[in-house]
Amino acid sequence: MSAALSASLFGCAKDLSPKDQLQISTTFSNYDGFKVYAWKFYNAFPGYDFSVPNSEFNSDLFLNANPNGQSSWISQTVVVPSSDAFYTNSYARIRDVNIMLDNIDKTTLSDGDKAHWRSVGYFFRAFNYAGLVNRYGDVQYLDHAPTDADTALYMARTPRNVVTQHILDDLNYAQQNIKVAGDGANTINQAVVQAFISRFGLQEGTWRKYHNLGNAEPYLRASTAAAEKLMVTFPALSANYDDDFNSENLAGVPGIILYKQYVTNQITHSLSSYGRNSSGRWDLTKKAVDMYLLKDGQSRFTSPLFTNDKTPNEEFKNRDLRLYFTVPPPYKVNTTPPSSVFTYTGVPDDTMYFGLMNRISNAQHKTLPTLNWNGFVVRQEPHYADYANGQPYSVTYTGYRFYKFVDHLVANLQNSDINDCPIFRMGEVLANYAEAKFELGEFTQAIANATINKLRVRGEVAALNVSAIANDPSRDADVDPVLWEIRRERAVELMGEGFHFDDLRRWNKMSYVTQWKLGRWIKKGTDVPANSIIPIQNGATEGYISYEPLPPANFPDYYYLYPIPSGEIALNPKLTQNPGWPTK
Amino acid sequence: MTSGKIIRISALLMIMACLPVLFFGQTQQATVTGVVNNEKGSPLEGATVHIMSGQKSIATIGTDSVGRFKVMNISPGAYSFTVSRVGYEQQTLTGYSLKGAQTTSILITMIPLANAMGEVVVVGYGTQKKATLTGAVASVKMDNVLKDRPVTSTSQALQGAVPGLQITQGSGQPGSGTSINIRGYTTINGSTSPLVVVDNVPMDIDDVNPADIENVSVLKDASASAIYGGRAAFGVIVITTKKGAKNQKVRFDYSNNFAFTSASTLPVKSSPLQYISALNDFGTTTAWSGQDIKTWLGLLQDYQTNPSKYPDGMATVNSIKYPLAQHDLYGRLFEHGFEQIHNFSFSGGSDKTTYRTSVAYTNQDGILTGKNDTYKRYNFNSNLTTALTNSLTASVNVFYNNETQTTPVNYGTIFYNAISFGSHVPVGYGQLPGTNDTLPYSTPDNLAKIEVPQNIQTNNLRLFGKLEYSPVKNLKISGEYTFTQANYSNVDVRNTNRYVNPNTYQLDIVNPTSSYTKYTSATNVNALNLYASYTFNIANAHNFTFLAGTNQEQSKEAGYSSKRLNLLTSSVPSLSTSIGTPTVDDDFNEYGLSGYFYRFNYSYKNRYLLEATGRYDGSSRFPTNERYGFFPGASAGWVLTEEPFLHRLKNIFSLIKLRGSYGEIGNQVTYFSGTTTQDYYPAVPSMSIVNAGWIDPSTNIVLTTLGSPRLVSQSFTWERIRTYDLGIDATLLKNRLSATFDVYREETIGMLVNGSSLPASLGTQPPKENRGNLKVEGWDMNLTWKDNVGKDFNYSVGINLAGRNPAVITKYNNPAKLLSDYYEGMKINEIWGYKTAGYFTADDFVKGALDANLINNKTVSANRGLLPGIAGFQGVYQNPGDIRFVDLNGDSVISPGANTVSNPGDRMIIGNSTRRMQYGFNASASYKNFDLSLFIQGVGNRDVWISNNVFWPYTDQFSNIYTHQLDYWTPNNPNAYYPRMYANASGNTGTSRNTQTKYLSNGAYLRIKSIAVGYTLPQKLLSRIKVSRARVFFSGENLFTFDHLPKGLDPEASDLGSGGIYPFLKKMSFGVNLSF
């Protein structure tokens, strides 16, 4: 009896459940529950994460200014990993989305609200699958949240065309059914869906075309159709290119479709600080800088405005303004490090670009001289890592230091940056549209004016005249001159935003990375001390800086797809490795 | 044993004054009354008194609860008395002549047995005689373990004292905890801490003041611990606290202990010259702080010969500062600490009531510089037991403790800076360049002193009430109710402070945004125990004991946290005096447990012993239908020395007992994977509230979202821990030698784990289910020798050893045998690594691959510049001086393969970090009033892989070099200990530091835990000042450690980041013990 009494007093038989957590039934019971749940989907957007500019190291336009920083894709030393966070995290996010989708019909929401949440779910599912397809090609496609006993876990990889058709179908549904204005400012809405269709359609369409998979057109058409709608909704770009990347609040900035907001003490990033301290080691290559046109719309190889690249000052004259927002213009000042004060050297050449930067930028953005994270004046740009003059921060190997995401200084607040990150912006959509139209054989001067030439305005570069394109000797002979200019514009507009490696892959042009990555022209004894260890191409004392060895000559075809993690194959023998990768 | 000898060490006999007697008719019989006391004068209940006439026993009687006995109607004559009691030496008093019509009173003082075998051992819900115990139970008296050591926590005091009880401590920080494990019992489902019960109720072991503890029993096998059910899966530590004794006049005890503390080990930094020379050797051209290495080296060399040229220890070249003088950064961070402990108690009792009340105060100032590293504790403990009626006894216990710990907030930064800053870094204060501000350098010692410490307060209140009812003889019914409330509060104040960075001389702001954070939580536990025991015997040969009862428990915890940014002033920090946006959060945890248990003991003439236990246990953590489990245990023993054929050898064999046990017990506690955070609702697919990575643009505040609901199985239940134990207890050579030896096997069946590796397309962890088994095998033993030489010299020596094999996974669903998960046949804690062949030499490369400095091999070829047949690391351009690994699989490239057992690449199992042999050794001796004791503890067999800045030189461009790291490879030092290092620690530095045989450390150590000497003041002196006992002592703690690691590392210390440890404390202490 006493036992029974005590059991009723204390009762472990009661079903206890957590008081500070929700469950599926309590979450998907009303509109707000869906809304709260869906915020987690936004983690799919990396924002200003290091991984974004880091991916550029695998392309021909960036160099990792660290000893032995050579990309394993370029040096062909990629190792099949046993597990891969991108693979695992993508499926985890897909599961989160599928859980919501699996529960929509169990709720009493209105049909319209159900369609809206289905659209949000479809958008994010498509976004995550698109990432997987881009890396791995065929991937297991699951449209529901599986249990651990689900045999679908052990199925073979779903063919690429099936997965991409699902992605397109999901995106089309979302475009038609999502609330036009989403769930308020800066949320997934119709325009965001269209922006992603523009990106994905181009990506998949060109991949199919250049990898000979066929059926490219529906994807390119979807891309152009979505872009056309956006070009109506977002007719204008921000006047200043730098505003797109270094605004403390991107709300209301023209041409910004979706952005990741950063706020002090809430969510911050470090990308801006890394451009000011010793950790940011993203350098543009000589090739990347050469892509920036001169004011007359011609490249340095044909433009009469180009004098030479033997000195930084000469090389930077009359260039696309976007260059000055991407690589600090050259200068020299006197300063006693560490110090936030400087004096002019009195040599006019040393401050040649101060006036230009004063005109195109302001104290809220980029200023000269450049400052380190602590506000100390950097004595000179280019500022070489191996000739740092007692200033070990803001250094470069190639002489072209990447500072596109460097915000105006917030003194002493290192690694707590708050400039917002654009996720979808019209700059990209216009580049997507121009390229997709060309690939469809529908590129005209009018389209050039609506796309390329709108982008060029921000660089104060003369418009592209489709019928009068100078013969760029650096052009890949296999690429149509018009397409060459479209791709150039894309590379310049999107420099460092994590697109170029994927672009080379979908164009089947990874052969570009087998070229030597070079830096500025320097002369030992003049630009740097005669005994400087800065390596120059072919061991010369004057020439282009060359830190990395010449990569292996042929880029292997199988490197176009990432290897499937070996652990996944061990767990599911039906997963086959992408051809060419070691399977043992 | 001769009777003379017994007498020598034995009784005080007194014949009291004859009392007036009454005459009743013709009866002229005699009466005997007596009191049996222990050696301290406290009465002994349950002693057996035989009244012997010659060899014949004419009467037998037990003493009552106040130690008295009385026998009437004895014929006059000559008698002797034989008195026996468990735990005491049998005594025979001879030569009594009893006269008719008279009462003779005798006082008998019993001497405790010189060995542990006679002890009464506390077991679940009762006590048993050690001599008839059949489970694997080790028991120690706390006073014997603690002695006068300057130890503030119970768990630290027990380290090394009990075979098979593994207590590890990760830090010497005041108030830091320990982790406890019994016999290596394990599960792969989180923590394996034993249950600690204090006077029948679970409690944190370190909440008990060690000085209040009477006895500690460690129940090592499931047959013994099963009765505690649900939380006892990994063994039980049963603690009983000191109580007063009946009929004892009030007694006051006071003791104190004052200790001066210092670090047991600190790493030794290289000199500035050594450091910069090394960087130069590595090819670093510019220090991360901007100095040109060649210039710096020249200045340092000049400084060695002309130090007076640099009066402030600093040079400036090209406007860059070059620090040249050497400073002792570590020595400034760690100074001497001071500790004091005070214990005061009073105790006593009347014939119905006993009482004991104690208060204690502990105050430790740690060895980190400044006053921000402290621990303070107050303990209060009061017991009152009183007999309400002849059959009803009531007890009340009030227990309270209050702890305050302060810890520097930026611990990680402090240790990182202490480890990574070079000895050239200036100390003290410096001028902020370009200003007139003199600010502290952000050196570790300044950070430790200036920043506001985190303040953690805990207090525990425990109220305990017990009624014990004995309606008939041998039946005891007990009811116990305990209420425990534990409060925790943590206040974290971050001020915005300005420093000068001592490397770059820039402004260094700690906490750009000031904040005030407070977290409080309260846990309420209600526990009820109801149990009854009944003992009887048949024909004085068959002894039976039954115990049955129930245990009900419920715990509720609620936590609340609040934070507000932007303090108005650093001098009055609070939520109210901050002006930023406040944020709040709460958390709740609950569980309930319900158990029904029994124990049955049978013994035949104390010769054949049997015990059976069982518990039916329910836990709220499991799904409704899987909530209860039944866990049985059984054990048996055979006391050989009770067999008549061995009686002749009593002088050699006092006791030999063989015993064996089998038991099962359940585990209900699971943890969130990879954490030590308990999962109270593993059956509920709940979604926690978390911050999203997205901001609401209308408020500029981060949005709230939900975590992912986990997959939950509805068919998971208790994980079962099954133990088998075979043991022998022996007491030899007239109790001088006692020994215990056990072999055991533990199997953990149906471990509650995610259970299998599933394809990533699942998108989450598999549900927790009862998948996976493992087993542990081992042995432990204890040997004690105790003797005396002459009257004045007593000594004892004890050793305990515990050996065990690493746990083996016997069942697990990982058919692919991925090394990233558990797999069948895996030994827990195994270390996979490469086999080191040596260094690459220039001869391994094709001609022209290397430059004049034997570096810069960047040859684009299939074998990356290595000669055919020479295997380099995959994806790496090797250079001479890099570690060359053995190409175990013969594929001409070194790689981790597919990371499976069948294809581990060129790796193999190179070691195991399980502590495979642990030992403790203690010795004590006393001569007249002097006593001396020694305690050693250690681990005999263990491998550890250490990869931090104190082991490896120059882990990155920001790290320092220690003196033991100066033997590194260069072309001129090709046989160095450490491989080639590269500029900024880049290049192949990391490849050479893969886990491998050459740099696997031996984790064995021997620590002299304690050496103590004491002197007891002569009684003559004391009696004049009404003091009954006074003793002074000196002791040293952690004075020496012998290990295989470089200075500054300790095999047991936990890494606080980058190899920084809070070293264990060397203590020199003294104090006094007083009783009056």
Task: Describe the protein.
The complex is a heterodimer of chains A (584) and B (1076). Chain A is mainly α. Chain A contains 21 helices and ten strands. Chain A has helices at 2-10, 24-27, 31-38, 51-55, 85-104, 111-136, 160-177, 190-210, 217-233, 243-246, 271-274, 286-290, 312-315, 321-324, 354-360, 426-439, 445-450, 452-458, 481-493, 500-506, 566-571, and strands at residues 21-22, 62-64, 256-260, 282-284, 331-334, 343-344, 380-381, 421-425, 521-523, 542-544. In chain A, the strands form four sheets. A three-stranded antiparallel sheet of chain A has the order 6-5-7, with no helix packed on it. A two-stranded antiparallel sheet of chain A has the order 2-4. Chain A has a two-stranded antiparallel sheet with strand order 3-8. In chain A, strand 5 and strand 6 form a beta hairpin. With 1076 residues, chain B is mainly beta. In chain B, 7% of the residues lie in helices and 47% in strands. Chain B contains eleven helices and 59 strands. In chain B, the strands form 16 sheets. Chain B has a 22-stranded antiparallel beta barrel. The longest helix of chain B is centred in the N-terminal third of the chain and has 13 residues, at 293-305. Chain B is globular, with a radius of gyration of 34 Å. In chain B, 46% of the residues are buried. At the A-B interface, helix 1, strand 1, helix 3, helix 5 and helix 21 of A face strand 30, strand 31, strand 32, strand 38 and strand 39 of B.
Q: Roughly what percent helix of chain A?
A: 25-40%
Q: Which structural class best describes the helix and strand composition of chain A?
A: mainly alpha
Q: What is the straight-line distance between the termini of chain A?
A: 66 Å
- Strand proportion of chain B, as a percent range, falls in over 45%
Structural class category of chain B: mainly beta
- Distance between the terminal alpha carbons of chain B, to the nearest Å? 36 Å
Number of strands of chain B: 59
Assembly type = heterodimer
Total strands of chain A: the figure is 10
Radius of gyration of chain B: 34 Å
Return residue spans of chain A where pLDDT drops below 50 for at least 5 consecutive residues: 1-10
**Gyration radius of chain A, rounded:** 26 Å
Number of helices of chain B: 11
